[in-house]
Amino acid sequence: MTPVHTIVAKELRSAFVSPVVYVIAAIFLAIVGLLAYSAAANASNQAIRLMQIQNTYAQLNLNDMLFRPLFRSINLILMIILPLLTMRLFAEERKLRTFELLLTSPIGVNEIVSGKFMSVIIVYSGLLSLTSLIPITLSAYATFDWRPIYLGYVALFLQGALLISIGLFASALTENQIIAAFLSFGCILGLWMLGALGGIVGDTTVGHILSYLSFSEHYERLIRGLFNLKDILYYVSGIAFMWFAAHQAVDAYRWK
Question: Whole-prediction pTM value?
Answer without folding.
Answer: 0.91
